[in-house]
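Bench log, entry 3. Co-assembly request; chain sequences pasted below exactly as received.
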Amino acid sequence: MAAPDAGRTRYALLGRWYDLVSAEPLYAPGREVAVEMIHVEPGARVLVVGCGTGPDLPALLAAAGPHGVVLGLDASASMLGAARRRAARLGPDRVRLLLADAQRVPAARLRDVLGGPADAVLAPYSLSLMPDWRGAWATALAAARPGARAAVVDTTVARGTLPVRLASRAACALGGVDVAARPWRAVEEELEDVGAATLARGHVEVRAGAVPRRS
Ligand SMILES: C[S@@+](CC[C@H](N)C(=O)[O-])C[C@H]1O[C@@H](n2cnc3c(N)ncnc32)[C@H](O)[C@@H]1O
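Structure output for the full assembly:
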C-alpha cells in the first residue's frame, strides 16, 4: 500500500525536475494511446486528473482546437507551476489549472472551471497515488457529460524476468504508486465501449470507455 497520500507529498516540490527524471520514453506511449482513445473533438472540454507538468497538453490542445478548453487538476503547486509555463507557450487562454485534491474537490467546481461538463477525461499516472482513487475517479466522471470518453493510464509491476519485475516495482515505489490499486479496473467495471492497451510488459496499462448515458 502507498503511504497515506504519498502522491500528494512526493510531488510537492518536484515541478522543476519532474520532466528530467520521469523516464518519458517509458511512460509517454501510454499517455499517447490514452489521448487517442478519448477521441477529443474540436471545441471539447477536457479534464486531466493529476495533470502534473502537463505533458498531455500539446496533444489535447491540438485535438480540442482553438475553441476547446483543457482543465488540469493537481494537488501540487510546484507541478502546476511547470504546467503553467508549458501552457504559456501553447495557448494559455485555452488552459485552466486548478490546485486541488482530486479526492475532495466537488464535481460542480470542476464543471464550473471548465465552463460546462467535460467531454473527455484523462487520469494519467495519477489515480494509483491516491488512497481514495475510486472517489477521485467518481468525481471526475460526475463532472463529465453522459457519453464522454474517459481514460485511465497507470502502472503496476511488469510481467517478465525477475530483473524486469524488480525494476518496475522500484519505479512504482519511487513514484509513490500503490501497485495493488490497478485503477484501470474502474473503467472496465463502470464504462461502456471499453478499449484497452498493455505496454511495457504490463508495467503500463491503459483503459478508456464511454460514460454511460443515464436512462
Ligand atoms: C506521477 S505524476 C504524473 C503527472 C502527469 N499526469 C504525467 O503523466 O506526467 C502524479 C501526479 O498526480 C498528482 N497527485 C497526486 N495525488 C493527487 C491528488 N490527491 N489530487 C490531485 N493530484 C494529485 C501529483 O501532484 C503529480 O503531479
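The longest strand covers residues 144-155. Residues 155 and 204 are 5 Å apart (CA to CA).
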